């Protein structure tokens, strides 16, 4: 009984610290909106970068022709070919692994390897590598590393992330590097758009539904992009685009505010991370971190009670050993004896022989951590909706949010919690004009679609 009481005390404290009542979420949404405005005012004006994407036209389903995409964001990259001419499109794609030595070599070798794979992909069409029906091939390039963009077709690399470390590429225009490499491979192709995966998600959603004005990624990481009025961006220099619009990549993962419900577990995770005091919002809501937050709570319970029995805590002390798919499986366990929870505890943490009551405690922890994540994501979305003057009872304009990422796609209780929080924050009436839809493969398909929307043959 004493052991159970100690565990209950830890869970009760967690529930209180993670609480996200509507008033708190309203504060988060207001703080998000305020940071967005500051970031649009001038560079460095906000914790969130509010990057100008130079995408001023989103695809609308009228685009026609054959377009390509290159999606580079990790140890694999993808090349895609998309034939447009109607809403029913079936991209052909090929995934290629990057040899480890090229990830820390030089820029010419990496981009040469990518261009070589692209040349093979084009050659497999059975057509020449030259023009296509009198047109030069056009490509959308999704480059999911920090870049400073100066136009739709140029961007200099700020720094590498993930497993990449190619010094001579930093400060260089990644489009120019790719263009040079393609020319050496004899691929006559023009990069029509440089984007990141969140802008691609927005584009993929927009192609099928013109009411999509926000794109969100809720997966391993998290970010959002949206359509802003060009005249509401003080830091936008030069002539305003004819469309009057501009897609903004918020980089909301770096958002932080005193409104956020931060626990001792979040603080410890942040301090021990590779980027302490950065990406605070992402560390609260994204799939990379949820499993580890749950692990940290379980470790505290194991140190203060004996509900897990006499266990070796080595696994429980191992960072990121518990992943979000594991907590999703436990959270969704509907077996009478919570068998899946037992299996996951044994498989990942070497915790065996747990009682049903103990397994229920684990499910409750998964629920608390995930609900907080989903509700905070909803507050972030509401901040964007309010920034663009939508989602009020008097505004009947349809607002659709396209969302991609495994957390939203595969974690049902996360999705339900996010959707209910949106209704709670917007109100029953206003929420009727706001919808959410899954946008699959924004990072690949979206790049080809933006290339089409910005084609030299259309504009």
Automatic annotation (TrEMBL):
Positions of transmembrane segments: none
Keywords: ATP-binding, Glycolysis, Kinase, Nucleotide-binding, Transferase
Record-listed E.C. numbers: 2.7.1.-
Record keyword RNA-binding present: no
Protein name: Phosphotransferase
Catalytic activity: a D-hexose + ATP = a D-hexose 6-phosphate + ADP + H(+); D-fructose + ATP = D-fructose 6-phosphate + ADP + H(+); D-glucose + ATP = D-glucose 6-phosphate + ADP + H(+)
Family label: Belongs to the hexokinase family.
Pathway this chain belongs to: Carbohydrate metabolism; hexose metabolism; Carbohydrate degradation; glycolysis; D-glyceraldehyde 3-phosphate and glycerone phosphate from D-glucose: step 1/4
């Amino acid at each position: 009984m004493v052991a159970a009481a100690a565990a209950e005390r830890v869970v009760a404290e967690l529930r209180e610290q993670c609480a996200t009542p509507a008033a708190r979420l309203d504060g988060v949404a207001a703080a998000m909106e305020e940071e967005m405005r500051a970031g649009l005012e001038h560079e460095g004006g906000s914790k969130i970068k509010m990057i100008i994407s130079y995408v001023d036209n989103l695809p609308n389903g009228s685009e026609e022709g054959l377009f390509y995409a290159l999606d580079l964001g990790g140890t694999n990259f993808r090349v895609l070919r998309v034939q447009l001419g109607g809403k029913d499109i079936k991209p052909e794609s090929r995934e290629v692994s990057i040899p480890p030595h090229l990830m820390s070599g030089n820029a010419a070798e990496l981009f040469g390897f990518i261009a070589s794979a692209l040349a093979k992909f084009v050659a497999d069409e059975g057509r020449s590598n030259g023009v296509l029906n009198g047109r030069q091939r056009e490509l959308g390039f999704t480059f999911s590393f920090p870049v400073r963009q100066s136009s739709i077709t140029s961007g200099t690399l700020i720094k590498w992330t993930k497993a990449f470390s190619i010094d001579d590429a930093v400060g260089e225009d990644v489009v120019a590097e790719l263009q040079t490499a393609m020319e050496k491979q004899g691929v006559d192709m023009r990069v029509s758009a440089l984007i990141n995966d969140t802008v691609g998600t927005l584009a993929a959603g927009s192609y099928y539904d013109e009411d999509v004005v926000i794109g969100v990624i809720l997966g391993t990481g998290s970010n959002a992009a949206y359509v802003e009025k060009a005249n509401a961006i003080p830091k936008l220099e030069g002539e305003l685009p004819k469309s009057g619009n501009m897609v903004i990549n918020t980089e909301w993962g770096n958002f932080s505010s005193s409104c956020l419900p931060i626990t001792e577990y979040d603080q410890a995770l942040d301090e021990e991370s590779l980027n302490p005091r950065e990406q605070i919002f992402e560390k609260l809501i994204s799939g990379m971190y949820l499993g580890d937050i749950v692990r940290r709570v379980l470790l505290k319970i194991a140190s203060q009670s004996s509900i897990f029995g006499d266990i070796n805590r080595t696994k429980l002390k191992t960072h990121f050993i518990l992943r979000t798919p594991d907590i999703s499986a436990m959270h969704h366990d509907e077996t009478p004896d919570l068998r899946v929870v037992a299996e996951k505890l044994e498989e990942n943490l070497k915790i065996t022989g747990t009682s049903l009551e103990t397994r229920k405690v684990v499910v409750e922890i998964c629920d608390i951590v995930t609900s907080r994540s989903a509700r905070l994501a909803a507050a972030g979305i509401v901040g964007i909706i309010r920034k663009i003057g939508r989602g009020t009872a008097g505004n009947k304009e349809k607002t659709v949010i396209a969302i991609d990422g495994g957390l939203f796609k595969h974690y049902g209780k996360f999705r339900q919690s996010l959707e209910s929080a949106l209704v709670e924050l917007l109100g029953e009436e206003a929420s009727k004009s706001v919808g959410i839809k899954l946008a699959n493969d924004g990072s690949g398909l979206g790049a080809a679609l933006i290339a089409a929307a910005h084609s030299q043959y259309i504009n």
